[in-house]
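Postdoc handover notes: sequence design on the structure in folder B. Input tokens:
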């Protein structure tokens, strides 16, 4: 078991046993490390201490949902969502495949892909010259399945295994989280007009905050389309950079997640803890 796998196992254990508030010694023993070594390794890969991560897990963030809904709507209005303005989260720019590109089925497009270990799990990443076109957790869906889906979406493209060309998508994401500084990045996605509108709306949800499916439907001007919004959120092709993990049910319950509910809770807690750590930094 390598270091990434140990930390991923520790995070999953803490998520599954939050109610028991496991002691540091217990979690360290679970991954067969001394307390000292585990604490140091955890901080290096997650960017925060085990104690702070556990604190973030125990916060009942769903109860703050209603209070934050107004700010979400205001943000969307200020950013001109209805007029198709560019929306950013960590300076993320989302570009949709053009009708011509869609018709060409990726002809002439070179796509590099690779799998990269992270503290949250292995990530499959694929990029075109215009940006990231797919990112997903490998243990939830195998790399071969993700590659096959990519091939179906871009049947005439040229696919090449080139992890050195995709590593930046992961490095920049985790560097931004640890340093509290945004990094500019582009996403190149294919989807229906409604799906792309939903993914753009997801980018308006600030770090560490949540929105409900019905709130997103209101932002899009279709208050009765919560179910369709949920389907579009579930079809998100780029995990983490397009923050579908920030969407919960109106009640504050987690709801579903393409990569598993346990991972959704893990990602939310990791993101919130990173945000708190940044705020406390001198």
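Designed sequence:
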């Amino acid at each position: 078991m390598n270091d990434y796998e140990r930390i991923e196992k520790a995070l999953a254990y803490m998520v599954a046993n939050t109610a028991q508030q496991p002691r540091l010694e217990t979690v360290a023993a679970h991954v067969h490390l001394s307390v000292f070594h585990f604490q140091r390794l955890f901080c290096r890969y997650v960017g925060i201490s085990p104690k702070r991560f556990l604190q973030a897990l125990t916060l009942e963030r769903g109860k703050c949902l209603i209070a934050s809904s107004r700010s979400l709507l205001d943000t969307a209005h200020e950013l001109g969502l209805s007029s198709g303005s560019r929306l950013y989260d960590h300076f993320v720019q989302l570009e949709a495949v053009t009708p011509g590109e869609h018709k060409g089925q990726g002809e002439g497009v070179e796509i590099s892909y690779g799998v990269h270990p992270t503290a949250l799990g292995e990530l499959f990443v694929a990029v075109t010259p215009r940006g990231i076109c797919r990112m997903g957790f490998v243990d939830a869906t195998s790399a071969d399945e993700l590659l096959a889906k990519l091939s179906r979406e871009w049947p005439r493209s040229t696919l090449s295994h080139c992890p050195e060309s995709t590593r930046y998508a992961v490095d920049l994401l985790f560097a931004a989280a640890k340093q509290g500084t945004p990094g500019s990045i582009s996403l190149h996605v294919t989807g229906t007009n409604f799906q792309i509108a939903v993914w753009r709306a997801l980018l308006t949800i600030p770090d560490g905050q949540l929105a409900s499916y019905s709130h997103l439907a209101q932002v899009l001007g279709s208050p009765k389309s919560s179910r369709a919004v949920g389907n579009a959120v579930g079809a998100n092709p780029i995990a983490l950079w397009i923050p579908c993990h920030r969407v919960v049910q109106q009640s504050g319950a987690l709801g579903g997640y393409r990569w598993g509910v346990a991972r959704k809770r893990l990602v939310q807690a990791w993101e919130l803890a990173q945000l708190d750590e940044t705020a406390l930094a001198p």
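Context for whoever picks this up: Residues 78-90 have pLDDT under 50 and may be disordered. Don't rerun without checking with the PI first.
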